[in-house]
Structure formats: C-alpha cells, structure tokens
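The material for today's practical consists of a large collection of protein records. Backbone structure tokens are a discrete shorthand for how the chain folds in space. An example says more than a description, so a record of this kind follows:
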Amino acid sequence: MSETPANTISPIAEKYLRLQRAPNLGPVCVRRLVEHFGSIDAVFDASIHALERVEDVGRARAEAAFNARKLDGVADEIHRAGELGLRIICVEDDEYPRLLRHIPDRPVCLYVRGRLCEDDALAFAIVGSRRCSRYGIEQAERFAAVLSQAGFTVVSGLARGADAAAHRGALLAGGRTIAVQGCGLRHVYPPEHAELARQVQRGGAVVSELPVDTAPDGGNFPPRNRIIVGMCVGVLIIEAGQRSGALISARLANEYNREAFALPGLVTNPYAYGTNALIRDGAAKLVSCLDDILDELKELKHVLTPPNDPAQNTEQAMDLFADQLSPAERSVLAAIDHEETPLEAVCDRSGLSPAAVAAALTRLQIKGVVAQHPGNRFTVRRRVAPPRQGVPDP
C-alpha cells in the first residue's frame, strides 16, 4: 500500500472520523458526546458506563463510541481518500465551514475536493427543481452571477436543473462555488456533470459527508440539504413543485435561522407551485433582484456571530469582525473617509479593480462595518479595532 499524503487528515479529525463511521452514532449524538465530555480526547478516554450516562446515548451507542477507537477500516478509508486527492476535515479544523459548525446536526466530518476558505463564511445557497423550466435555468444562472459579483460564495448540490445552472452562473462570473454531493467523492452524480464538478473544484470545492466509495442513492440526497443550507446565510429556491426536495431547504433555513427566498413563477407552471406556496405562506420572501436579498441580509449578526458569543449589539459585533477581514476588505476600509466617500475614490485609493471593490463593499456592509448612501457613497459605521496580537490575516 502506498503512503497516504500527510495532509489528508489531521490527528484530531481522525478521531472524529472514527465516531462518524461507528454504527448507531449520528451527528447529533457525536456532538452531544463531545459537548458533554468537553473534548474528543475525553470521549475516547471515557468508559462505557460514563458514555452511557450521557443524555439519549444508551448502551448500544455507548458501546459503539467506546469501540470506535479500534474500529476496522478507518486507516483504509483515509488511505483511499488520500489516493483520490481528498482531504477529510472535522469541526475543529480551521477549514471546516464556520456557519456549518452551529447547526445542531452538523456533519461530524467532511470530505473535500478542492479548497474551502474564510471568504466562504459569506455563502448563499441556490437550489431548485431538477426538472426546471428554461426561465428557472436562466434565473438560477442570473442570481448566481450577481451574488458572486457581490462577493458571495454560491452553494448548491450539482444536481440537474437549477443546481447545475447556479454553479455555472457563479463560474461564468468568476466567483467561488461549492457543490455538496449526496454520494462519496469517488463518484459524481449525475455522471454527466463530471466536467462541471471539475470546474467547481477549480473555482471552489466539492464536498460530501459520506465515505469515499458510497454510491449515489436517493436516500442520501435529502440529508445533504442540511449541509447546503447550514453553510449559508440564506437560500434561494428557484423552482419547486408541490413535492420537490428543494422545499426541504426552505424548512431547514427557517429551523437554522437563515433567510429563505423564493423566485415567483407563473401560476400555471407546475414547477412553481411549491415556490409560490412558500411566498404565500410567508415561509420565504419573494425575490426579483439582488437588492431584495441584500436588504434582508443587513442584520446578519445572528448568523455570522456564534450563538453563545457575548456580542449583543452592532458595535460589539463589529469589533468581533476586526480579525475576520480579508486583505481586500482591509484595503477598501482604509480607503473610506469618515465623510461619505464616492465609489470611484474607494477604487482609486485601494488600488483594487471595481469588481473587487464591489465584492469587498458588499461583505463589509453585510458585516455591518460600512454603510451605503445615495449616489454610491460609503461611510464607515465605526472603525473596527486593530487585529489582536498574534492573529494573522485570513
């Protein structure tokens, strides 16, 4: 057997992977165990009796967790992932999506082909029917493109129809996109999207929580929706029939305290019955342009700030972001005066392209650091604190 690449998995992620592959242990149970004992190491040091005393664990799950330390097949799985150029990350790894950490049923581990980065914290999901109308395809591409140009990472499921259109729109706009698969990453589903998957990998990442060789199966696709929604600040449903799986994403968005949007469709279009019903019932907001989305996302502290964070107001939250600004965001922030600064002046002073400035300004507005005024003029809401000592730029 050839040697596994050293960066395939971290030592801490290997322990999480053992729990993920253990029978009877789902992501909620694994999270409960780690939170109860305080660390993954403490879980592995615990006796069966101690594990069994954790709420809703019971004897069978306690035995599974205890036996995970010597579980067969984990080394082979890591080696297989390394052969395919994948990385396996856990919630404690820096690369693990920041927003995804805070959903109750977060994946224990993720398999990654490509690259996840800090800017993906500002991600937006676009999903919809596989049997999409031409209008739906066009709108998925359109919204993916404008969201990409505004600085969002576009997340979808690589499925036929609206999902594939969303990935294409982001790529054509030069943006980042992430595909969440409902199968192991040895496979691409649907198979005709193999080239699209390669393009997504080059412009972002393809991810899955399933073991490498897991074949496509209908039962694995609904659970992956929670990953798509959990990674994002909001989700747009393009088209969905009355029983479409895309409607799961709207329900999850409301459960996870994310914003849900829906594209209205013709009342005679069966692929729009579900989206029109979401709007009618108040489960999703009607969207027709980018501004409809941005207007709803101006108060994102509840999403971008961890639930237990002490920041309770806008000023405290802005200090929280001081260490989370990208180099482009810092350059743009430095180019804005205390008075209203025109967009052209921001471009000139920052030395960045207009597209890069527009993307950075969008992220700074979402984070609450910058305010926009009529005539494309901007002010700093409050100067963020300098980075804490020893914390590098993302």
